[in-house]
Amino acid sequence: MRKTNKTIAAIFAAATIAVFMASCKKDVMDQANLQLVGVERTINATATIPQEGDKAYLDVNDDRKVKWDLTDAININGTNLALTNLNADPTKAYFEGSAYAIPSGSEDIYWAVYPTTLAGTASGNTIPSNFTATSLTVNFPATQTYDCSANALSGNTLMAGYAVVPSGEDKVEFQMRNLGAVLKLRLSADASATNTMATKIEFTTTNGALAGDFTVSNGTNPTITPTANVKKILTVNLTDGTNNFIDLRYPKDIYVILPPMSSKNLTMTIYNTNIKQSRKTITSATLARNKIYRNTVSDLCFCHCGGGSPYFSISPTKQVVFAPGNLQWSATGGGTTATTHAVAGGGTAAGTWRFASSQFEYIGNAAGNNTPLASRPTQAAWIDLFGWATSGYHDASDALNTNYNPYNLYDLACCNLDIANPSGFGPTGNQNLEGAYANYDWGVYNAIYNPQTNTTDPPGTWRLLTFKEWEYLLLNRNTCSRVLWAKAQVNGVNGLIILPDNWDDSKYALNTAAYTITQPFSNNTISVTDWTNIFEPAGCVFLPAAGCVDYDCDNDLLSYESNEGFYWSSNSQGRDNATSYWFKNSNGNTVLGKFKCSAASVRLAKEVH
Fold first, then answer.
1. Which of 59, 212, 362, 411 is the most buried (most CB within 10 A)?
2. What is the CATH classification number for the domain harbouring 282?
3. Which of 275, 307, 339 is at the close of a domain?
């Protein structure tokens, strides 16, 4: 079977079986006169792969389909027949030749299997013993091979079909019924891994069969039952088509085929040669036929959970660490602490920049954020909600860029949609804070005092994430534990915990509620002791729900404090809006457009190499 477009050849490997049923004949045969002695018939067989119903796609958002190839052959009751022709729809193939039928009264019984190596060979008119009228015995190999270059389980596809026709009838039609369960695993290398070559995945279970002999029933909804020589271990060898390993510096999708099962403690271990690199145990695994499983019982990363560096993937090739708290600014340095912190240059917005003293600290609706606009340029109080791109940088060539200072929010011009750049925040037009416009990013332009190290980080140490990086971080990355984030109350403060790639979920039983949109902050109540002793040493990040100063041209009111969090990205959404990451109590997390003249939180990050 072949791969066309995004199709893959032979995806349903060792554990994938299809049962072909005649559509207008009875499903169960009378066994009274059953013999394993065949009558040779000349037949014309049609094997069809349905595109609906029992067809199992490997990815619901992809277009992969199983299709026949002219090099294929099937085995009918022990005799091999080569494919002779393809239909215009290559999911239907034709096979012609002579094969032995199992006679039963006035009807002939046929089993067809693919590949031909699955079945025994007929001798004379004796049908192999694994063929009977009502069931077929198949062996699920204890070893599979996955070839990443072909995106296929090479050489292990197994399908079977059953049909009953009147004696002497030469036309037999089979339709596929899938029985295998497909696991889609995404493997990736942690940035701290010194060897990123994976050679095999080993599956083990404490109660269940992963390989051995299984009996396949002949119904339209067939079942697989383990019978003899069953094994509780399966090895999937990995190759890139040339080498007996795959390089996981970039994520790889791996497809593994298992028989339907209900098991406890299904464990998946990745090896480099004979060295265990990563392990995950699913305490309750139910794998149904004709189903595809991803994320919930898969997605290992090539790292030691709890070991290595606590980094956060923001793309398949980039990782970051986050600043130790939200960004803050004061015009005078907060009084006596002014000499301790760095003074930011740029424009007329001289002042002091620092990170909050803890991750759960925020100012909210207090002095600083709620200071009247006229007093903000000279205030000693700290601000931690900023209009977009208010780093203090001013491009003198951009006459419409007016509100570049950290203390600026909206003013009357913000309401005047007739002028060319109504908000005046950031570069004129739809420009992101990168390249020639990077200095509008707070971390790129300013030196910032870091209370974690008691030093001043120079300009360019930190930066904003892009909205695509926020999405990857919180929706698409792979981690050892598969736990990405959890809403929580830390030291009584509502917000969002983000877990690093190597988070070990045995450290603390977070209630992630499957990341449902209705997850409240109260799902997880974390004491300051647990945060200090467990989460922060593991590299976890906490974003407080600090609210925002929303777009309102009549008054400057802080909104949503303790209920919602808004964190700027570096991306513009046109003349008036920029993109922020937004989360809310009992609601979804998403990337959201927000007026540039609104004030939101800033949490900076820096790339690690």
1. 362
2. 2.60.40.2630
3. 307
Helix, strand, coil in percent for the chain, rounding step 5: 10, 40, 55
Q: Is 283 left (phi over 0), alpha (psi -120 to 50) or beta?
A: alpha
Q: Which residue has the tokens 């929706």?
A: 475
The type of residue at 369 is: N
User: Residue 501, by phi and psi: left (phi above 0), alpha (psi -120 to 50) or beta?
Assistant: alpha
Sign of CA dihedral 478, 481, 482, 485: negative
Cα–Cα–Cα angle for 423, 429, 434, rounded to 5 degrees: 105
> Is residue 516 predicted with pLDDT exceeding 70?
no
Is pLDDT of 353 > 90? yes
pLDDT value for 7: 30
Provide the pLDDT for residue 475: 83
Within a domain: 385: no
Q: If you ran DSSP here, which 8-state letter would residue 520 be given?
A: -
pTM for the whole structure = 0.56
Q: Would you state the torsion angle of the CA atoms of residues 413, 415, 419, 425, taken in this order, to the nearest 10 degrees?
A: 60
Sequential DSSP letters for 150-173: TTEETT---EEEEEEEETT--EEE
> CA 302, CA 502: separation in Å to the nearest integer?
10
Backbone angles phi, psi at 91, to 5 degrees: -80, -5
Instruction: Give the SS3 label for residue 448.
Output: strand
Among 307, 332, 352, give the residue marking a domain's end: 307
Domain of residue 236, residue span: 181-307
Q: How many whole angstroms separate alpha carbon 280 and alpha carbon 263? A: 14
Select from 569, 573, 602, 599 the least CA-distant residue to 410.
599
Residue 262 lies in a domain: yes
The pLDDT tens digits of the residues spanning 188-210 come to 776 656 677 889 999 988 888 89
In this structure, of 26-30, 310-314, 373-377, the range with the lowest mean pLDDT score is: 26-30
Domain contains 570: yes
Residue range 420-464, pLDDT digits in tens? 555 678 888 889 999 999 999 999 999 999 998 899 999 999 999
* Per-residue pLDDT tens over the stretch 77-103: 999 999 898 887 777 889 999 999 998
Burial (CB count within 10 angstroms: exposed 0-12, middle 13-18, buried 19+), residue 192: middle
